[in-house]
Design a protein that fits this description.
- This protein has about 270 residues and is mainly α.
- The chain has twelve helices and no strands.
- It folds into two domains: about 70 residues, no CATH class; about 180 residues, MetI-like fold (Orthogonal Bundle), CATH 1.10.3720.
- The longest helix has about 35 residues.
Length: about 270
Amino acid sequence: MLRLLLARLSQSAVTLLLFSVVVFGLARATGDPLTLVLPMVATEEDVANARRYLGLDRPFYVQYLTFVGRATTGDFGTSIRSRRPVVDLLRERLPNSLALAAFSMAVSLLVAFPLGVLAAVRRGTALDSGAKVLATLGQSLPTFWVGIVLIEVVAGRLQWLPAGGSGSLAHYVLPGFTLGWFVVAGLMRLLRSAMLEVLDAEYVTTARAKGAPEVSVVWRHALRNALIPVVTFAGVYFAILVTSAIVVETVFAWPGIGRLAYEAITGRD
């Protein structure tokens, strides 16, 4: 067990090291960030002073070691564009991303649970076929396309909900549904498969033989045991919702860490 744990920790360390090299290399490969910071009338002396102040005049390996050393202590430096510590920017945007992810997960659970259970109970019916189609669409349609369509139809033509930004509960609906679209498909398919397996178990057959109502058999006995893989999947996917919402947050102008990452990439920050 200890050997396996050490092996996994070593693999994680190597992965993080390679990831840091890629991030550092891509940041330097996009160009000189001073071209976005300094005005067009800046003199060569101004450029040299700014380069010295930001540490860009040092060798690449020194810059990389400084970058890794500060990152391990939680110091991600100062944003070139906003002139604020990156930690403060993350602390400011992270609650918005967590709130959006929580709303998306809540909507996903409310939609996926009844559909997954009913699709398993009524296997082979039109409801089951409709749930399969919905799951296929949820895993095949890209989130940016779903978001653009919702903005065009719901926010643009119908004008039912705001197209972007944050503030009231109405601002959560479109980005939350778009972000949770893929989660609904995954949870529903997983719950349907788990329910089909549990419904054929002996204890379910015994409960029916004892005269237990079908509603009690499905929602009390079967669902309780079918939730084990679903809860595990939901917990993992909540973290994915927080860290991979860059497309949705950019489309809906949501002030989260995903949009912050997009702004940093486009601004060479």
